[in-house]
Records
---
Amino acid sequence: MEKIPILKMGEFLLVTIQVDMHDRLAMALQDDLTRMISQTEARGVLIDISSLEIVDSFIGRMLSNIAGMSRILDAETVVVGMQPAVAITLVELGLSLPGVRTALNVDAGMDLLRQSVDGASEAYGHRLH
Amino acid sequence: MAIVSTETVPVRTEPDVVAVRRRVREVAAQLGLSLVDQTKIITAASELARNTIIYGGGGSMLVETLNGPRTGLRLTFEDKGPGIPDIELALRDGFTTGSGLGLGLGGSKRLVNQFEIFSRPGEGTRITITRWK
């Protein structure tokens, strides 16, 4: 079965969705990502959906699930690159992706991830002293 | 109103949902629908195709391009499944008998200009959506 590649970069995992996913592929990505987070102890996940021409309720739910599961595994998720037409359609469909952090592009998303990971370790350090 | 072209696409298995999206995109682009309107009708088609498979046990999508006085794209999803006993309830956001979010029917209605649903318990469901240019 085809798979969506997950790249490890430092303490982050990067996923670029470049194909029109059928539902089973989306479910497989969800499973693979949670497994990878726990194996690599990743602190953040960046999902680039700039190639996605639509996000329907199934894919939207998958993105929310990934964000929720990774948070439980102590990793932050940022979804980047959503096309404006996709954003308009998603909101009219009734999905506002609760709990999913977004950024306009990969650079902004990486900044957001670094900030939240740094912020988290600072707060932790504070508690220790 | 004149029907310019018609075509039937099978909606039976999960990969058919991807084929439905691809075909609707092609036709919508050929008709000259704006990118936002294309995205809306493709998304609505994706929701309805998935419903056709999950709840209707599979069926088909009829694709019609319309012309005069207005140009538009009309899609009809039909199945011979168990039907929808309470359409008003099924259209409500958050209502689902499956494991989804319950946004498919109500959400697709919001994404198109015209939405018609005909369903009879035990006979099946037919949903027609139209997006005008």
---
Amino acid sequence: MRDFAAIYLQQFRTTFASFVQYRASILIWMIWHILEPLVYLVVWSAVAASGGGNVQGFTARDFSAYFIVLMLVNHVTYTWIIYEYEYRVRHGSLSMALLRPLHPIHADVIDNVSSKLITLPMMLLAAGTLGVMFRPAFHTTAPSALLFLPAIVLAFSLRFILEWTLALAAFWTTRVSAVNQAYYVAALFLSGQMAPLALFPPAIRDTAAALPFRWMISFPVELLLGRLSPAEAWEGLGAQAVWLVAALVLMRAVWRSGVRRYSAVGA
Amino acid sequence: MRRLRLLLVYVRASALGELAYRANFFFQILQSAVELATAVAALSVVFAYTDTLGGWTPDEVLALVGVFFLVGGAIRVVIEPSMEQLIESVHDGTLDFTLTKPEDAQFLSSIQRADIWKLTDVALGAAVLALALVRMGTRIGAGQVLGFCGTLAAGGVIVYSFWLILATLAFWFVRVGNILVVFQSMYEAGRWPVNIYPRWLRFGLTFIVPVAFATTVPARALAGGLSPAALAGACALALVLLVLSRLFWRAGLRHYAGASA
């Protein structure tokens, strides 16, 4: 365990130092993470304004709060691993990672956390600025804020492992961009990125709750905003935990059979 | 005329290269169709709760989505790949080969690569636009068609000039590939009418990253909501940016040292 921590720390130092060199590019990529929720914030505020100030219990200021928190939760939990894996498998650079005596997912976790340490202060600043402009309404309670902490950690872990597993599709197909698009579209609607799930018909809401999408993004958002009852909050944490275990099992199975197929083309 | 022939030769060369990968065509159609369906689904969710968005009816926003795909596709067919290639060639010095050719280097650099499969976006965008016009049911007068074509052409020139200015920054800063992400992500905001955005963002989308001229303005012109003054303004801005991007190009070229080629 001590060795493990030492490896993590050393890897973290190296990755962080190299990311600081690329800070300009990393910051440019943030624009998309700010702009997408901002666009939907504006669209839904306009809808609320024209619909008598209220859409399914959301006022314009509720939408502001929803999308500002969504922006942060989405940023904290996002990964770029699906693009990255396609490159690794195609160019054979995965071979290097396979030689190391540590599962490659650890290096990816460190990569992800390092880059976010650079971007998170900027995202918080962006969230604060948007907060001043759009005057969000929060109904956060002390328990919901407290439960938000495990919820966001579980959401990050779940999304990371699931997207990491999905990225392994690169072992079987060169059309990873199509896989990625299908996943992106499903997540756009089912994880509450385009609109709060409460605005969708019951059938779609139920689908979202049965699949992992809701538990990766919209659940922590709704929790922090105080839109969930204590019972719903605990149920949600339970659903996150169940999905996390399922995702871990799936990842192990897919990784094992994927690595067996890998033939290190061109490396 | 010579330029047009050259353009066709370059497009043909790119097309021949791409035709070796015909399966890509079907995947591109599939991806474009999914993207379009997503956009339409998002519209239907929004318009389930309202009749107008910032003064635009559902069909007008649908027309806007059509224009958004049409223009976005056109950008991705030739402007984006060529500009990426330009940045790359400044970086590794292969721009030398373009400079030695007996034709204007800016022109050659701007058409050097075409991603023909992205024409699917153009076709789907045009289809959605046509559908929206049919649904609107109003007769489109000659004035509107003229205004639409005029603003669309002006929007195209504005976007091209803007990309060229961004790409020529490579002459000074070399590693600017990431800056193109700025345009790509700002362009996404153009699928909604820009007048719903708060003033600072509207200003940014109009004059700093000129997305509005490529999407909202032509869609507005088609619906007949554009004054002749606005049309003249768009054309004037297109002209100014075209000249400005040319000046950028020339200044950049003087700065080019042809490293390592």
